[in-house]
Amino acid sequence: MSDRSVRKRESILEAATELFLTLEYAGTSMADIAAAAAVSKQTVYKHFSDKETLFREVALGSVGEVGAAFQAEVAATAEASDVPLALRELARSYLIAVMNPVLLRRRQLVLREAGRFPDLARKYHESGPRRTIQVLATAFDRLSERRELLVDDPLLAATQFAFLVVGEPLDTAMFRGGRRRTRRELNSLADAAVEVFLAAYRRKRESPRLHGLANPNS
């Protein structure tokens, strides 16, 4: 695909996102999208066979790409030497990724049209939020094996970590919108979430001095 063709495709996706959010799926036509993208209707159909195909691409377009990068970071965290630091960095990047304006808008689209496309909503959930929980659970299980965390139920720990990190800011963005939080604000929220998580799951280490102390009654 030529650079020009790629640019046209991106313009179509951007225009479609705006229109689907503003007019919803039923109120948006391919002609509307072509006009908003400043391309011909024929060009829109060249890239996307019909409106449903285009909508699905808009809704799911970046989920896999973001997921792959996150999975690599989680895998590195599972083997980190400084686990608290690694968890803070993971939480920060996780929250920043989730709060990306493009991803937020696509999540809004999926939720808005879940009744029309329940399979799409399930696919989004499975490839996004649910996949994230599963990847985190694997990492926390590994950290428990390494005796860095004390985790009896990795899936529960992963769910709690995810909701501690993204729960409040994501809910606020989805339902209230408004001013975007700064990176500094997001980092502060992520750090606070990790503190709570570690208070619950960090393995308490014995003092070397006490561990080696002879029993006075022996």
Report on this model:
With 218 residues, the chain is mainly α. It has two domains: 3-59, Homeodomain-like (Arc Repressor Mutant, subunit A, Orthogonal Bundle); 61-201, Orthogonal Bundle (Tetracycline Repressor, domain 2), CATH 1.10.357. It has twelve helices and no strands. The chain has helices spanning 3-23, 30-37, 41-47, 51-60, 63-78, 83-98, 101-112, 118-127, 129-145, 154-175, 183-201, 208-211.
Summarize the entry for a quick read:
The chain is mostly helical.
Topology, please?
Layout: H1 3-23, H2 30-37, H3 41-47, H4 51-60, H5 63-78, H6 83-98, H7 101-112, H8 118-127, H9 129-145, H10 154-175, H11 183-201, H12 208-211
Helix pairs in contact: 1-2, 1-4, 2-3, 5-6, 5-9, 6-10, 6-11, 8-9, 9-10, 10-11
